[in-house]
């Protein structure tokens, strides 16, 4: 999904602040690295179902170049990915059943950096959930991953310097052949085994991604972020330096004056899975919805102005019904009574709307039928 898939110049309707809480809160999920689809390789499914059951409308979308979305994910810059997230947020906020002032961005891993950049760039959200999202520079996280994978600290440091060099070449517009020659020479070095053990493979996608991310440090964005944040981690995350990230979240929250909660779940991995399971446990899921409920009720954001005069300009309250909306079922999945997926004209192939069971939103045009 690219921003042009969703965004238009339509002016948001004005809503009555006193009626805002008659409308459902909403959340947009932003997927992690690589070619993540709207389910983020299945990780989002139980989280999405939990939010929907708790009465929160959820929008998920395919990353640009994935599924039915246009564009190319590997060459997308952080700004472009953040623009996509903001466009998805705008699409959800334009839904008549969703309260503008009660919407949240949920970013997983790299998607946390994307959601963070969208927020500090002005996306009107009441809260920001950064899930398994490092607060350290990209290459510091790579160093952590290499050490966890078995490299000693010296080998990891040399491997990271090599990645830094590749990233500088790629960011400078050098062709991939430059990187291929560098890799051929590096294979003779002992430390290169650490990269191979961690799954390093130089291809066109990796070359493009190196140019985008190798110099990224989230600290400037975190230092500018005044939106309430929930940062969640698995204690045994092999990809994220959790302790260092917690320190950075705490430091930047103090300097920015940001309301913030940090939760580290014992024994959990990068996807917060309970040991012996592929799914996050109920403790983690309850922590998410509890924080959303508190943050969106307590926050005072500029979007609250967009909820004024809703009852007078938009007419009656949104239609609430147990009748199922028309549904689109990607990947052949069957809908459930708690997971209503309604499609929307031009965006119908790139995003999924998931409504609480008492909210039914029919498609806007016959193109969705």
Low-confidence spans: pLDDT under 50, at least 5 residues? 3-21, 300-348, 360-369
- According to CATH, the fold-level topology of the largest domain is Rossmann fold
Tell me the structural class.
alpha/beta
SSE run: HEHEHEHEHHHHHHEHEHHEE
Shape: globular
Give a quick account of the main beta sheet: strands, pairing sense, barrel closure.
Answer: 8 strands, mixed
CATH superfamily of the largest domain: Alpha/Beta hydrolase fold, catalytic domain
If strands are numbered along the chain, what order do they take across the biggest sheet? 6-5-4-3-1-2-8-7
CATH architecture of the largest domain: 3-Layer(aba) Sandwich
Number of helices: 13
* Helix content class: 25-40%
Count structural domains: 2
Question: Proportion of β residues?
Answer: 5-15%
Strands, total number: 8
Structure characteristics:
369 residues, eight-stranded mixed sheet, disordered N terminus, Rossmann fold, single chain, 13 helices, disordered C terminus, alpha/beta, 8 strands
Helices and strands in order, then pairings?
Blueprint: H1 3-6, E1 24-30, H2 44-53, E2 57-61, H3 78-93, E3 98-108, H4 110-120, E4 127-131, H5 138-148, H6 153-171, H7 176-186, H8 192-197, H9 204-213, H10 219-224, E5 229-234, H11 242-256, E6 260-265, H12 282-298, H13 310-313, E7 340-342, E8 351-355
Parallel strand pairs: 1-2, 1-3, 3-4, 4-5, 5-6
Antiparallel strand pairs: 2-8, 7-8
